[in-house]
Amino acid sequence: MEAPEVCDVCGYEWAAVGAQELPARLRAAAAGFGEVFASADGRLGQRPDADTWSPLEYGGHVRDVLLNLRERIILGIAEDNPVPKPMFAAVRMANGLYDNDDAATLTKELDVAAGLLARTVAALTDEQLSRPLFYPYPRPETRTIVWVASQALHEAEHHLGDVRALASSPD
After folding, report:
1. In the chain, where are the structural domains located?
2. Fold annotation for 18-39+50-168
3. Are 147 and 134 in contact (CB under 8 A)?
4. Tens digit of pLDDT for each residue in 37-84?
5. Does the model's pTM come out above 0.70?
C-alpha cells in the first residue's frame, strides 16, 4: 500500500479530504484571506524578502489557482484524460500581474473564485469526480478530478497559513 500524499510544510493530506467537505472549506479559506486583509496593516503589498511573496501576491496567486483549477476540472469532464495548459504562475509574478491588486478587490475576487469552484465541485457526480486528468505537480501524473479539487483547497489553505504568518510577523 502506498503512503498517503502529505504536504511536507502544512501537513495537508489530499486523500483525507472528501469531496463533500471541499465546498465549505474552499469558502472558509477565501473568507480567511478576507479576514487577514481586513485586519492587517499597510504592509500587505510588501515582500518580507526577495524570495517571499507579499500577502497580496499570495492572495492573487490563490485566486488564479482557484479559477484555473476550476477550468481544468471542467476540461476533465469534457475530455478523456486531458493535459491542461499550465497556469504560468511564474510568468504572472515576473510580469507584475499582481502588482495592482488591492485588499478589498482581492477579497471579493477570492470569494467569487472559491464560490465558483465550490459550486462546481458540489454539482459533480461520483463518476465525474473520479474521471482522470493529468496534473503536473508535485510530480507529473494522471490524477482524478476530486484530487484536483483537493489540490485547489490545499493551495488555498496552505497559502492562507503563509499570509497569516506574514500578517502576524513583527516586521
Report:
1. 18-39+50-168
2. Four Helix Bundle (Hemerythrin (Met), subunit A) (1.20.120)
3. no
4. 998 877 899 999 999 999 999 999 999 999 999 999 999 999 999 999
5. yes
